[in-house]
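Justification of resources, computational component.

The compute hours requested in this renewal are based largely on the per-chain cost of generating structure records like the one below. Each record pairs the submitted sequence with a full structure-token output. That output is archived, and it is also reused by downstream analysis tasks.
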Amino acid sequence: QANPHRSQFHEAVIGIAVEHEGRVGHWDPFLWTDGDAELAVGREMYGWPQRLGTLALTAPHPQRGWKPGDRCTGLVSRLGRPVLEAGLRIAAAGPLAVPQPPFVGFFVERALPDPAEECVRRELFLARMRDVVPGDAFHGPATLALHAPELAPLAPREVLGGQVNTISWTKGGAELLARSSVPFPRPAWG
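The structure output for this chain reads:
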């Protein structure tokens, strides 16, 4: 709290609602951030596949906030190449009126090489956020353009709409759900 510049960061996430053995959460195969601290914590501690990128998002008007008719645009690029663009024409205050999965946590997978055992140790966690406080939701018609080739399989058939909102939380620990080991692949020559 004494250093707010250290806790404010930009992050773009492609999240997919999934279920593992009766537990619901989000799996995030692609994440971009523009902060070294978030990159280090998210990738090195939690195991999220975060990448450093350049992010831009339209901010609400500083005095009046969001109003119907306003446009909100989000742009993500990486290494000078466009990754994705999201656009939203605000229609009204409140959340988007389509079913949304509950915000309960994130599935995280870590794969750590173990040279002593000549294997890769894989671990699946469910990371939960504490004190989740969403607010200031506005919704409306939206567009989504995925530019990076690796995102092409995730392109939606239809965009039902979009929502812009604030959210705050405290990152907590994670529950270990599964652990396995996979042997290193052996080269064909030896």
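The chain has a mean pLDDT of 87. The CA atoms of residues 134 and 167 lie 4 Å apart.
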